[in-house]
Amino acid sequence: MTLSKSPEAAKCYREWNTFLKQTISKQKKKKRNHWRTFLAKTQGNLTFKAFAYTQSQASGAIASLLSQ
After folding, report:
1. How far apart are CA 60 and CA 50, in angstroms?
2. What CA–CA distance (Å, rounded) separates 40 from 68?
3. CA nearest neighbour of 32 among 54, 55, 52, 49
């Protein structure tokens, strides 16, 4: 796809960019609301198990290989 620097191309880009941002924002809002509803319905230890999935599993370090 070749982009020209015409005013029409700039307008099209802005419209597409706005649409994309709105779509992503709607999806994030749906996900957040669904997660909050799920957490509101949980009972007992399930809340703590669910909370564990919200945390990043990456430690930032590379695990060393152990030879046996």
Report:
1. 23
2. 47
3. 54
Tokens of 64: 């060393």
Rounded CA-CA distance 18/26 in Å is 12
Q: CB within 8 A of 9, min separation 6: which ones?
A: 3
pLDDT (tens digit, 9 = 90+) per residue, 31-66?
Answer: 999 988 888 887 877 777 777 776 666 666 666 666
pTM of the predicted model over 0.70: no
Do 50 and 39 touch, CB atoms closer than 8 A? yes
Question: Of the candidates 50, 55, 14, 17, which has an alpha carbon nearest to the alpha carbon of residue 35?
Answer: 50
| Segments of 1-68 assigned E as strands | none
